Amino acid sequence: MGIHILLHLSVVVVSSPLLLGIIGKTKACLTGRLGAPLLQPYYDIGKLFRKGNVYSTTTTWIFQAAPIVCLAAVLVSSLLMPLGGLKAPIQFWGDILLFAGLYGLARFVMILAALDTGSSFEGMGASREATFSCLAEVVLFLDFIILACVSKKFVLSEMVKGNYLPSWHLAGPALILMGLSYFVVLLAENARIPVDDPGTHLELTMIHEVMVLDHSGWDLGLILYGSAIKLFVLGSLLVNILIPPYHFSPFMQTMMFGTGMVLLALGIGVVESCMARLRLNRVPQLLIGAFVLALVGVLVVLLKGV
Fold it and tell me: Rounded to whole angstroms, how far apart are CA atoms 184 and 291?
């Protein structure tokens, strides 16, 4: 079990920043630019880990502990998610509640860290983060309800790796609606366009980035690394559902999983290249639209008795 956990964490830690590099390279290619190297996220995180930290005199231990707690939460969440042929090291009935709770914990400590600075600017970002996350979490749990009803399981790894092909004629519409709504949640939870722009520093439009402006050095490196792992883990949930769990060896499942993650990163890059960031008053409308899709999916599952 110990070796399995180390292997699982190694795959997550090594592969996560690559998704950010693929997204950045895709956006550069579609806009006619050379762009940063594919491994630029690794260079950025490594540079931050070599720098020292600067702390304001108004902050407390909460500000210093938040990046560590955030990274630890997303790493533990990765242990609940299968990665292709690698089974989830931690599996138990109802672990989807722990999965969602870990990301809630990570968000909570980052909001506390933003408020701990005493800056009204970061408080504004924390307020936006809390507001939009409330809408996104409802959609996430509706998607979990769809998966639980279709798979007849309440264990995350069995829900995402369930064999949905035999019941596709019944569960297909609900799974499509779930996939569309979850993709919106994926973009919102990772502060991607059209909900947020991770590359902007315009104070009136920032949501997540404004909460980390006072972090520096290896603290900021931990936050960036945690964001990359969060994108990898949440993206793997969608990819696992799309990959047939049977008829393939573990090696082939792992290769298909890796290909699916690359395609997901390319898809996010295409979306960010083709769309502009929404105005703040339009973001709740987008999340409410995802809620309607997920709710219709739940109704379809219940009415068809999948």
Answer: 10
Query: What pLDDT does residue 204 have?
Result: 62
Task: Please give the Cα distance from 237 to 12 (Å, whole number).
Answer: 13
Distance of CA 227 to the CA centre of its chain: 8
CA angle, corner 130, sides to 127 and 131, nearest 5? 85
φ, ψ (nearest 5 deg) of residue 31: -100, 10
Provide the b/e sequence for 169-206 (b: ≥16 CB within 10 Å).
Answer: ebbebbbebbbebbbbbbbbbbbbbbbbbbeeeeeebb
Q: What is the pLDDT of residue 173?
A: 86
Q: Would the pLDDT of 246 be above 70?
A: no
Q: What is the mean pLDDT of the chain?
A: 89
Q: Which residues contact 72 (CB under 8 A, 6 or more apart)?
A: none
Joined together, the tokens standing for residue 151 give 């798979």
Q: What is the pLDDT of residue 165?
A: 64
Is the per-residue pLDDT at 187 higher than 90?
Answer: yes
Residue 223 to residues 120, 122, 123, 166, Cα–Cα distance (Å):
21, 16, 18, 42
Q: Minimal CA–CA distance to 74: which of 137, 16, 25?
A: 16
Give the tokens for residue 195.
């909900």
DSSP 8-state secondary structure symbol assigned to residue 39 = T
DSSP 3-state helix, strand, coil percentages of the chain (rounded to 5)?
70, 0, 30
Give the whole-angstrom CA distance, residue 84 versus residue 248.
Answer: 10
86: helix, strand or coil: strand
Q: Which residues contact 42 (CB under 8 A, 6 or more apart)?
A: 17, 18, 21
pTM, to two decimals: 0.94
134 contact partners, CB below 8 Å, separation of at least 6 = none
